[in-house]
Design brief:
Elements lengths: L4 H22 L15 H26 L11 H22 L12 H21 L10 H4 L1 H15 L22 H4 L2 H26 L6
Helix pairs in contact: 1-2, 1-4, 2-3, 2-4, 3-4
Length: about 220
């Protein structure tokens, strides 16, 4: 665990700036075509969580540097929240590159700045921060249910909006969809949605369990 607050601060500022640029590009700020409906996608919501977390981490790191606070946990703040956001980001990364990207007719779409920034670089930045800057030995087995809040919350949101008639843009020339992703699209996937959702939940719980296991195995308190 790295505890040099100045190095950590530089990393977090650079990460925050990158996340800001990636989100602005996704919303169409640089092209003048503002796309507010991006907020309805899990990718964007998880990246906003990453962006907000980096912003708060920067704030607390600066406060510690100013106050010359030399605590044992270094520049680690709210580790359970960090773990929750990191896992939400891993869902974005894993689902996109293993489930969604292979479905694209034009794989080049996956290689655009927006796509790589939101689906790969930003999640890896928060993963790096969690691995190297976050205190260990603070997660409990029951925290696994806290980790499920972002993905399950989004699933509930998308289901309600889908059956409420909200439409999501599709590829050019195709009809818009009632759901943002095929694996939760009841109209197109039918009963297979249950299979997809249960499979994703099982994989997520396994990943969350690994995080809790290694958090306790390499506990900072044991050193």
């Amino acid at each position: 665990m790295i505890k040099n607050k100045k190095i950590i601060l530089i990393f977090r500022i650079c990460s925050f700036v990158f996340c800001t640029i990636a989100l602005m590009a996704q919303f169409g700020v640089f092209t003048g075509n503002f796309w507010a409906s991006s907020l309805l996608y899990y990718t964007v919501q998880s990246n906003i969580m990453i962006w907000g977390l980096f912003g708060s981490l920067i704030f607390f790191t600066i406060i510690d540097i100013i106050n010359k606070n030399h605590k044992k946990s270094g520049a680690s703040y709210h580790p359970k929240l960090c773990a929750t956001v990191m896992l939400a980001a891993m869902v974005t990364l894993i689902i996109f590159w293993t489930v969604l990207a292979p479905q694209f007719e034009d794989f080049a779409f996956s290689l655009t700045f927006n796509s790589i920034g939101l689906h790969l670089i930003s999640p890896l930045l928060i993963l790096f921060d969690y691995i190297f800057f976050t205190q260990r030995g603070v997660l409990a087995k029951t925290d696994i249910w806290i980790f499920t809040i972002p993905p399950l919350g989004y699933y509930i949101q998308a289901t309600i909006l889908g059956f409420s008639g909200v439409l999501y843009p599709s590829a050019e020339g195709k009809e818009p969809n009632h759901f943002p992703y095929f694996f939760i699209d009841y109209y197109k996937s039918g009963w297979m949605v249950a299979v997809y959702v249960i499979s994703i939940i099982i994989c997520f719980l396994f990943l969350a369990s690994l995080i809790i296991y290694f958090d306790n195995k390499y506990s900072s308190k044991k050193k």
